[in-house]
Amino acid sequence: MLQPKKTKYRKMHKGRIKGTAKGGFTLNFGSHGLKALEPERVTSRQIEATRRAITRHMKRAGRVWIRIFPDVPVSKKPTEVRMGKGKGSVEFWAAKVKPGRIMFEIDGVSDAIAREALELGAAKLPIKCKIVTRQGEV
Which of 11, 55, 128, 137 is geometrically suited to a Cys-Cys bond with 37, CB 3.0 to 4.6 A? Predict the structure, then answer.
């Protein structure tokens, strides 16, 4: 699973995901892409599950680009632990995704296979997605 090799700080504030994507909203590598329509934190496990679903359907033909990286540490306190005594330890890593962000791109397969692969991948993500192509949005 994806996670940073080294970070400046171990833990981070939760924050809010406001506004739309100010970068990464156009296709740069592939012919088809998966675009986010809602703001959400996408975990490294969800990214990996999506990548696996897409590559399996493509039967390892073509190429997949992952355009998001989980660089936000999400901490959690164990269950049935009383309040106080500091912030919990880092449980998992997540990527903050804003609406309009292209998360995955694929190329080198037919239009029908690409569309179905991205639909299978979108089912693994916690947000509503749209499949986009070079010609326009579908």
Answer: 128
